[in-house]
Design brief:
Number of helices: 11
Pfam families: Phage_integrase
Low-confidence stretches: none
Strand order of the largest sheet: 1-2-3
Shape: elongated
Strand content: 5-15%
Distance between the termini: 50 Å
Largest sheet: 3 strands, antiparallel
Oligomer: single chain
Radius of gyration: 23 Å
Order of helices and strands: HHHHHEEEHEEHHHHH
GO molecular function, one term: DNA binding
Helix content: 40-55%
Protein name: Integrase recombinase xerD-like
CATH superfamily of the largest domain: Intergrase catalytic core
InterPro entries: DNA_brk_join_enz (IPR011010), Integrase-like_cat_sf (IPR013762), Integrase_catalytic (IPR002104), Phage_Integrase-like_Recomb (IPR052925)
Length: 252
């Protein structure tokens, strides 16, 4: 299809430059292009699978009591999943952007991808008190990492004579992805099927599966439109019982 489109655009451009009407505007040509699109098809988008809540719980159980490097990635996974965060959001977080409360924590994003006016936004994450509690895990990570207020939340970690120590430089995307894949493969997942965006899409899909209203999901994830939010949803992973909730809640 790219070759066909290139040829059509080249012909149209040449005729336009010459001040002539392009034959590509003819109905027959348009029909042939549409037919070729249906026959050849378009290259499928290789979207990564969303992480599920059971996967995040398994990672916390396995690495929540591990060394600083393991704990950092487990925290990154849990935070990205529970707060619907992109890598861009996670990489820019500083200690001073986190505020702990009795029953939740608040995360301040100075700027999100779709925050055109740079107003910033707060995300609230509940403290369920379970072993998989994202707030409890982050508190543990902050204690072990000895973060100062202006420190990046996720940083490079080095081996020293005093054990693992965080450095000033932030954790890179490539290193975060590498360590993320190590952890998900350790719980039996195919690492090639998942990426760091699996955290955001996974949390979104899980919330939808539990029947959380779209407007709350949209607000939590910072989407400006329902269309952009739906791109992060994986409707096909919804279970049989989840799909039944629609008709069960109609009040009949």
């Amino acid at each position: 299809m790219p070759t066909i489109h290139s040829a059509v655009y080249a012909i149209a451009w040449a005729h336009k430059k010459a001040g002539k009407k392009s034959p590509t505007e003819h109905t027959l040509v348009k029909q042939m292009i549409e037919t070729s699109r249906r026959i050849v098809g378009l290259k499928p988008v290789n979207r990564k699978q969303p992480l599920e809540a059971k996967h995040v719980k398994a990672i916390i159980v396995k690495f929540g009591d591990g060394n600083l490097r393991q704990l950092q990635i487990a925290t990154l996974i849990t935070l990205g999943f529970s707060a619907f965060l992109r890598w861009d959001d996670l990489s820019k977080l500083e200690r001073q952007d986190i505020a702990m409360e009795n029953d939740h924590m608040k995360i301040f994003l100075v700027k999100r991808k779709n925050d055109q006016y740079r107003e910033g936004s707060w995300i609230l994450v509940a403290r369920p008190g379970k072993i998989s509690c994202p707030v409890k895990l982050l508190e543990k990570f902050l204690r072990m990492g000895k973060h100062r207020q202006q420190d990046k939340l996720f940083r490079k970690i080095s081996h020293t004579s005093n054990g693992m120590q965080p450095r000033k430089s932030p954790l890179s995307y490539s290193r975060a992805l590498e360590l993320f894949k190590i952890q998900i493969s350790s719980i039996g997942l195919n690492q090639s099927a998942y990426g760091l965006h699996s955290l955001r899409s996974g949390g979104t899909s899980e919330a939808a599966a539990w029947g959380i209203p779209d407007r709350l999901i949209q607000r939590h994830g910072g989407w400006r439109s329902e269309k952009s939010m739906n791109m992060s949803l994986k409707r096909h992973i919804l279970s049989h019982n989840t799909l039944l909730r629609v008709s069960q809640r109609l009040g009949l």
